[in-house]
Design brief:
The protein is an all-beta fold and 180 residues long. The protein contains no helices and twelve strands. The strands form three sheets. Strands 7, 8, 10, 11 and 12 form a five-stranded antiparallel β-sheet that branches. β5 and β6 form a beta hairpin. The chain is rod-shaped and about 110 Å long. The termini are far apart. The relative contact order is 0.18.
């Protein structure tokens, strides 16, 4: 048998603990906190009492949750609609921001070239229209979840959409009609 016991306890979390190694497979916001590890050992003679010694404290912070873009579609020649899912606690979430970048434009850094197109509050339905785009142009789209602590979750930018072709700005001219 083992002559020591390892226990992890979350500070401020009521009692109980996790034995052995502290392992959090999928970190969630609810896992954020400070965990204390204690080890009880028996050393000395048979009559020795267990001794608890604090080895370390570990802080667990859940990172920003990124939205999942589920659809994009052209509304007209200068606007698109973007839909996304966000499956997380939105307590500290300030807003969602939809960004667009002309598809295929080359930049030194991957983060260059993104333009803010629309922002929504976190209580809104997870969709937004982006206006003011160029006609008949292909765009990459992503959605940011912006938190109160300035952290940002960034969706994958794999969604692409093309705005529609612009309608003619002038009526047709030089038409001839023939009677047959």
């Amino acid at each position: 048998g083992s002559n020591h016991r390892v226990q992890w306890v979350e500070e401020g979390g009521g009692g109980g603990g996790r034995s052995g190694s502290l392992r959090i497979i999928t970190v969630k916001n609810g896992d954020a906190g400070t965990y204390q590890c204690t080890v009880e050992t028996m050393y000395g003679g048979l009559s020795a009492q267990p001794v608890a010694s604090e080895l370390s404290k570990v802080s667990v912070e859940a990172g920003p949750v990124k939205p999942l873009v589920t659809g994009v579609e052209a509304l007209n020649s200068t606007a698109i609609m973007v839909l996304w899912l966000f499956q997380a606690d939105s307590t500290n979430l300030l807003q969602f921001t939809v960004q667009t970048k002309r598809f295929g434009e080359e930049f030194q850094e991957e983060e260059e070239g993104w333009l803010d197109g629309a922002s929504t509050n976190p209580q809104a339905i997870t969709q937004a229209a982006v206006h003011g785009l160029s006609p008949f142009t292909k765009y990459s789209v992503r959605v940011l979840s912006v938190y109160a602590d300035s952290s940002v979750g960034v969706s994958d930018s794999s969604m692409e959409v093309s705005t529609l072709e612009a309608p003619p700005t002038m009526p047709p001219s030089g038409l001839m009609a023939a009677v047959t």
